[in-house]
TrEMBL record:
Gene3D superfamilies: Spore Coat Polysaccharide Biosynthesis Protein SpsA, Chain A. SUPFAM superfamilies: Nucleotide-diphospho-sugar transferases. InterPro entries: Nucleotide-diphossugar_trans (IPR029044). This is Hyaluronan synthase. The keyword Ion transport does not apply. It comes from Flavobacterium saccharophilum. Keywords: Cell membrane, Glycosyltransferase, Membrane, Transferase, Transmembrane, Transmembrane helix.
């Protein structure tokens, strides 16, 4: 908690001019030089990274030594009844994915975040913080928001306790005592879920822009104004996604890996999506919505169902989808940084991914109902390309799972060695990207995360597809989520 406390204190005490994104003061990732690598990585981290490189190099060496076996395997596969069609399919998918990647790379280089507008131009803003069993974390969140570089007279801050069973309400009251009229706090009579807590905030909010922030997240001083500014510049902007980094990335191995993954997901992928005006998901950690856009879909959003069951997950993806459907732009602001807690243990992580996976399946089905229609006056190519890319991952989940299991059963050594070599090649882009943006030493976690995900979380998407109708937040009550 010490590193988190230091970060939070820096947020509260530093001015905007003192806290640029890549400043050593605003040190999201505790950036070290390559020379400091061994000195700053604890023994367990060093062992894991060393093991990661050992596995990838061993895999590469085995591929080299067993090249003739690989050649024979490919020949046997092509000559089989299913081999040639499968090869054609995988080849087509490879070219599609490669083309999509190169297009995203082009869009990334074109992307620039919208600069903050002046205080006079900033619209009024309602920030909604739903909380359930967050304890003192909600205090930290509310104070970081209150210390934002945003005109007080234009900022309404709402905190909604969703029937917590711990001392969350107490810490909200303490924040109310400290902030006075700047903060309004409300308590749900019982736990109804995050969507209902947000709904109450939307009904109570008076701002032209709604901002939602998770109660275990800390915002930078200029995050709110940067998050809200695109609505002034782009009148067709309906929603804006914040840039999420990991707050607890010094406490455990998984957060270290996830921090690199988050940077790729947000700063690369959402930058490209933003250039298309079609960011697919505004994150719960920090997102902004135009008031009119929210009110237009609010009844549908709160009453959303899937296979006859009320939707109690994926409220952020659902809201984004409904705003895209209105023909509005959904953008990403790289300069609107928020730090959030992520699971520190395997159980919490896979449950979080299952929840995201189920939401992805549901919302892709919803998106299919409008994305090929005339839902937007401007170009619809980007939204359709992103939809196809997401859909292909879902459609091909089972065929590739079956092929993987077949490959393991027939040639386990060939499978594991070729997979490790592929990780070394493909994940090197993530390493280079993170190293360029932040730190080389931290960037190496991209390799570890790829190995970890490939061999221990490969089942998430197939399972999420098969159980897409199931309800439940899954990670509530797990201590590692905090």
């Amino acid at each position: 908690m010490k590193s988190e406390t230091i970060i939070q204190e820096q947020f509260y005490t530093s001015s905007k001019s003192e806290l640029p994104l890549n400043s050593s003061i605003f040190n999201i990732n505790n950036q070290y030089s390559h020379k400091d690598f061994k000195k700053n990585v604890n023994p367990l981290s060093f062992i894991v990274l060393l093991g990661t490189f050992a596995l990838m190099l061993a895999g590469s060496f085995i591929v080299y030594k067993l090249q003739s076996d690989f050649d024979q395997f490919h020949i046997d596969r092509i000559n089989s009844a299913w081999g040639l069609p499968f090869l054609i399919l995988t080849g087509a998918l490879f070219f599609f994915q490669t083309g999509s990647f190169l297009y995203n790379l082009y869009l990334y280089f074109k992307y620039k975040p919208i600069e903050s507008v002046t205080d006079e131009l900033l619209p009024t803003c309602t920030v909604i913080v739903p909380a359930y069993n967050e304890g003192k974390l909600v205090w930290d969140t509310l104070l970081s928001l209150a210390n934002s570089d945003f005109p007080e007279q234009k900022l309404q801050l709402l905190a909604i306790d969703d029937g917590s069973k711990d001392d969350t309400w107490y810490w909200m009251q303490q924040a109310k005592l400290k902030l006075g009229d700047r903060l309004e706090i409300y308590q749900q009579p019982e736990n109804k879920g995050k969507r209902h807590a947000l709904y109450r905030g939307f009904e109570l909010g008076t701002g032209e822009i709604f901002v939602t922030v998770d109660s275990d997240s800390i915002v930078k001083k200029d995050t709110l104004r940067n998050l809200v500014s695109p609505f002034v510049v782009d009148k067709k902007c309906g929603a804006v996604a914040g840039n999420v980094h990991v707050l607890n990335n010094k406490k455990a191995l998984l957060p270290k890996m996830l921090n690199v993954s988050f940077v790729m997901s947000f700063e690369f992928m959402r930058s490209a999506e933003s250039m298309l005006g079609s960011v697919l998901c505004t994150p719960g950690a920090a997102a902004a919505y135009r008031r009119d856009a929210v009110l237009n879909c609010l009844p549908e959003w709160i009453d959303q169902t899937f296979m006859g069951q009320p939707s109690d997950i994926g409220e952020d993806r659902a809201m984004t989808n409904m705003i895209l459907k209105q023909g509005l732009h959904v953008l990403f602001q790289r300069n609107a940084v928020v730090l959030t807690n992520v699971p520190e243990e395997y159980v919490g992580l896979y449950k979080m991914f299952i929840r995201w996976g189920r939401s992805n399946v549901r919302e892709n089905i919803m998106m299919a109902q409008y994305v090929f229609k005339d839902f937007r006056k401007e170009s619809k190519f980007g939204a359709r390309l992103l939809f196809l890319n997401q859909s292909l991952k879902i459609v091909m989940a089972y065929p590739f799972l079956l092929f993987m299991l077949f490959f393991i059963a027939i040639h386990p050594i060939l499978f594991f060695s070729s997979t490790l070599l592929s990780i070394l090649i493909v994940s090197s882009f993530s390493v280079l990207f993170y190293a360029k943006r932040y730190s080389l030493s931290e960037a190496f976690w991209a390799y570890s995360y790829s190995i970890f995900y490939t061999f221990s979380l490969f089942w998430i998407t197939p399972y999420a597809i098969a159980t897409a109708n199931k309800r439940g937040w899954l990670t509530r009550g797990l201590s590692e989520v905090k």
